[in-house]
Amino acid sequence: MNEAMSLALRIFVYALVIWGTLVWLGRKYTYFPSRGVESEVPAGARVITLPTADGERLQGWWFEAPGAPLATLYLHGNGGYLAIYSEHLQAIRKAGHSVLIIDYRGYGQSTGSPSESGLYLDAQTAYEWLRQRGYPAERIVVQGLSLGSAVAVELASKQKVGGLVLEAPFSSARAVAARILPLVGWTLPLGYESITKIPGVKVPLLVIHGDRDRVINLQLGRDLYTAAPEPKEFLLVPGAGHEDLPMIAGEAYQQALRRLYQRCCR
Predict the structure, then answer these.
(1) Residue 124 placed within a domain
(2) Do 202 and 210 contact (CB within 8 A), yes or no?
(3) pLDDT of 105-120, one tens digit each?
(4) What is the mean pLDDT of the chain?
(5) Total-model pTM
(6) How far is 5 from 101, CA to CA, in rounded Å?
(7) CB 97 within 8 Å of CB 69
(8) Looking at the domain assignment, is residue 244 inside a domain?
(9) Residues 246 and 218 in one domain
(10) For the stretch 207-238, what's the b/e string if a residue is b when 16 or more beta carbons lie within 10 angstroms of its beta carbon?
């Protein structure tokens, strides 16, 4: 082997190692769970444990509004645990509907370790629990924040639901990576390809995004919204970052949710 070929081979090997390391890091830092944390249970919540088909046990909170026509399945972001999302839950509950939130596997008191397929199964488990509680599929609204938005899109693409709410969503994990690493981010197989799934999700959609979101760029939320079919609504929240949407939007957040609920109940 001549010197030029040897150099080219070394460069290829180094590039492959670097690319593989980036893939590993991308998948490793997709999840930031707080493990083993016991959340103080808020008033009105019932603690439930849901067994998954692959043997994990998920902890969740069930806020039941007797006689409520709709139930929301809330799928949170990639960090923390149940109690961190209390502001979001309060805003949803003000609409007068039942709400179920779960900690994914590996989060809070839930067993296991998070993965893309695992989170999809966790959402499916929670959805089936609501169906068993007597909620028709068309009366279940799936709402996801950030990483949870991708889990919500996956669930809505596989199961019948009444409506879909996406907070600070992104088009794909690769698109997020490309914002951080413009030259190689698009090549990383990181999954969560919501933009390829959402064209087939033909239910009322609400997308909510802040114009100061430094975690998920606003354009990624707009890209996903553009790819979605009607009926749909985009709520831009001026001054909001990544996890303060209901706090900054205030009544506008709840009004947008109510408009979606009305479309679901037609």
Answers:
(1) yes
(2) no
(3) 999 999 999 999 999 9
(4) 86
(5) 0.89
(6) 57
(7) yes
(8) yes
(9) yes
(10) bbbbeebebbbeebbbbbbeebeeebbbbebe
Residue 37 within a domain:
no
CATH code, domain carrying 214: 3.40.50.1820
User: Distance between CA 238 and CA 241 in Å, rounded?
Assistant: 9
Q: Decide if 48 is inside a domain.
A: yes
Residue 94: what pLDDT? 86
3-class state of residue 151 by DSSP = helix
**By residue range, what is the domain housing residue 157?**
44-264
User: Which pLDDT value is given to residue 30?
Assistant: 66
Q: In the chain, helix, strand, coil percent, each to 5?
A: 45, 20, 35
Query: Residue type for 4, please?
Result: A
Q: What is the mean pLDDT of residues 77-97?
A: 87
Least confident of 4-13, 36-45, 94-103, 154-163: 4-13
Active site residues: 146, 213, 242
